[in-house]
From TrEMBL:
Gene3D superfamilies: P-loop containing nucleotide triphosphate hydrolases
Limits of the Chromosomal replication initiator protein DnaA ATPAse domain: 64-218
Domain of life: Bacteria
Span of the signal peptide: none
Protein name as it appears in the record: AAA family ATPase
InterPro entries: DnaA_dom (IPR013317), P-loop_NTPase (IPR027417)
Polar residues bias (residue ranges): 261-273
Organism: Alteromonas aestuariivivens
Example GO biological process: DNA replication
Region annotation (Disordered) ranges: 251-273
Length: 273
């Protein structure tokens, strides 16, 4: 007959734990605590590995440029410094569950080409994915409109209509939608396009989903280009306007003359009126 000590030693060897040196007796309570600690450590490692896999998948589905991070951003002008400050406040607010459930929020980035609008929007998205596992989707509006236009070709053999319906549903469901190049090279969108975009924004508003819109227009031009119905949809959000007026960050471009030094107040919700 095996005594209790022999049974414990045998169990320890079966679980890959060497017996204590000098065959020192280990009571059941101590042994159980050791195994629980080992099991908890293994569970923690599995959870961390699973979280990394989830975050990697979220980054992959977002279509974000991997270089759009705060680490790669040069804060070389007042407008970028101000935008980064607002961006970090927006990210930090996600730690408050009440804020996340209170309503829908929209950041409106506007300014000329190459000012860093898309980069900062992407940096926000990357950090939200890493910290809070927020689902993000980055899309250029012109690409969506092309897909929408071709979805009406009922003779097409590439199932474009079904692809657009799936894409449209994804636009509705994702936690943070980034729409870039809004109304690029467009003086005014067609009426049915204005309605589609306005409805998209209103449905996201009802479902408490956040948006970032990026445009090269100023606000007056953007209101005209989007049309009143669509622009009113934007005004329903808690809106934050962020104007980019500094120098272009793109290499090889000729610097433009300095713009008038407007004093832009600190951004507050519902600035779009």
């Amino acid at each position: 007959m095996q005594n209790l000590k022999d049974k414990i030693d045998r169990l320890a060897r079966a679980l890959g734990k060497a017996p204590e040196k000098n065959d020192e007796y280990i009571d059941y309570k101590t042994l159980r605590k050791q195994y629980e600690q080992q099991a908890n450590a293994e569970v923690s490692q599995l959870q961390q590995r699973t979280k990394k896999e989830r975050i990697s998948a979220l980054h992959g589905r977002s279509d974000l440029n991997p270089k759009w991070t705060f680490a790669n951003l040069v804060e070389d002008s007042d407008d970028v410094i101000e935008a980064v400050s607002i961006a970090r406040s927006f990210i930090a607010a996600h730690d408050d569950a009440a804020w996340r459930q209170a309503g829908s929020h929209m950041m409106l980035f506007y300014g000329d080409y190459g000012r860093g609008k898309s980069h900062i929007a992407g940096a926000i998205a990357h950090q939200l994915i890493d910290q809070f596992e927020i689902t993000v989707l980055y899309r250029q509006l012109s690409t969506l409109l092309e897909m929408r236009y071709f979805s009406y070709d009922f003779s097409a053999q590439d199932n474009i209509s079904q692809k657009f319906r799936e894409a449209n549903q994804e636009l509705l469901d994702v936690d943070l939608l980034i729409l870039d190049e809004v109304c690029v090279n467009e003086t005014v969108l067609k009426k049915n396009t204005q309605s589609w975009l306005g409805n998209l924004l209103r449905q996201r508003l009802v479902n408490k989903k956040n948006c970032i819109l990026i445009t090269n227009h100023n606000l007056a031009e953007l209101e005209h280009a989007l049309g009143r119905y669509c622009f009113e949809s934007i005004k329903e959000y808690d809106t934050y306007k962020v104007r980019f007026s500094g120098p272009s960050r793109r290499e090889g471009l000729i610097p433009e003359p300095a713009e008038s030094q407007d004093v832009t107040p600190r951004y507050q919700p519902n600035q779009v009126r």
